[in-house]
Automatic annotation (TrEMBL):
Molecular function GO terms recorded: ATP binding; ATP hydrolysis activity
A Pfam family recorded for this sequence: ABC_tran
PANTHER family with a match to the protein in the record: CONSERVED COMPONENT OF ABC TRANSPORTER FOR NATURAL AMINO ACIDS, CONSERVED COMPONENT OF ABC TRANSPORTER FOR NATURAL AMINO ACIDS-RELATED
Family statement: Belongs to the ABC transporter superfamily.
Gene Ontology CC terms, in alphabetical order: plasma membrane
InterPro entries documented for this protein: AAA+_ATPase (IPR003593), ABC_AA/LPS_Transport (IPR051120), ABC_transporter-like_ATP-bd (IPR003439), ABC_transporter-like_CS (IPR017871), BCA_ABC_TP_C (IPR032823), P-loop_NTPase (IPR027417)
UniProt keyword annotations, A-Z: ATP-binding, Nucleotide-binding, Transport
UniProt protein name: ABC transporter ATP-binding protein
Domain of life: Bacteria
Residue intervals of the ABC transporter domain: 2-246
Residues in coiled coil: none
Length: 248
């Protein structure tokens, strides 16, 4: 589904990502973890197109997208949520989803009026489903800015889903959430996987990562130090060393 080969990103003298490789299989939940500053966000930004790589390939369904514009990546089926919530706070919940449904990726498919009345494959129906899935149906007409923090995070997820991605990038979705919200997030990630989504999860909350991922890639100082199942990476001395300084 997504393969990263020899990916490098330097910011001046900082080697934020320093030659990493990994491959995500269709239908899996793939975790990307590592201590602060290890290169996770930079990797996600490279994959979704916010940054151009210094070197390396990003293959999405076999096509090298390393130089493809962000909105085109969205149309190919790559959507993300942000670590820092980025919603249109002056629009309603429903309108935020409608904007996503009508992302540049889908604009060419039908005229405005046709889309507005829900002509293109029932956009309204899909928005309803995204609202239902994220537990926000009762807040559809409220301004996004008036939602509680946890609800805004759910709206971020719903918005990414409304773009109908094949690969969903979740950038620290549990940040700032309480235990109950994290349990709900855990459940939602599993449901999305059952529905056929492929997910790249960047997360600091280890319990969540270990519970929902199939495989994990561990970064440290911009390099991959381990890859494997949750059990394998947890038992890896290099990983324990990177996190706790208590390895081999
Ligand atoms: N735009 C930038 N300009 C310069 N340096 C940057 C930039 N973005 C990231 N870096 C540096 O690159 C390195 C990797 O940062 P990155 O944000 O990718 O790490 P991270 O693993 O996502 O960290 P965190 O867990 O704290 O979010 C860090 O040393 C960081 O300071």
């Amino acid at each position: 589904m997504l393969e990263v080969r020899g990916l490098v990103k330097h910011f001046g003298g900082v080697r934020a990502v320093d030659g990493i490789d990994f491959a995500i299989r269709p239908g899996e939940v793939f975790g990307l973890i590592g201590p602060n500053g290890s290169g996770k966000s930079t990797t996600v930004n490279l994959v979704c197109g916010l940054y151009a790589p210094t070197q390396g390939q990003i293959l999405f369904q076999g096509q090298d997208i390393a130089r493809v514009a962000t909105h085109k990546r969205l149309s190919l089926g790559l959507a993300r949520t942000f670590q820092n919530i980025r919603l249109f706070t002056n629009l309603t919940v429903w309108e935020n989803l409608w904007m996503a449904e009508n992302a540049p990726a889908h604009r060419a498919e039908a005229g405005f009026l046709k889309r507005w009345v829900g002509g293109r494959g029932n956009a309204r129906e899909r928005i309803s489903q995204a609202l239902e899935f994220s537990g926000l149906a009762h807040r559809a007409d409220d301004l996004a800015g008036s939602l509680a923090f946890g609800e805004q995070r759910r709206l971020e997820l719903a918005r990414a889903l409304a773009a109908r991605p094949r690969l969903l990038l979740l950038d620290e979705p549990a940040a700032g959430m309480n235990a109950e919200e994290i349990a709900q997030l855990d459940e939602r990630i599993r449901m999305l996987q059952q529905q056929g989504y492929t997910i790249l999860l960047i997360e600091h909350h280890m319990e969540l990562v270990m519970a929902v991922t199939d495989r994990i890639c561990v970064l440290n100082f911009g390099r991959k130090i381990a890859e494997g199942t949750p059990a394998q990476v947890q038992a890896d001395p290099a990983v324990r060393d990177a996190y706790l300084g208590t390895g081999a």
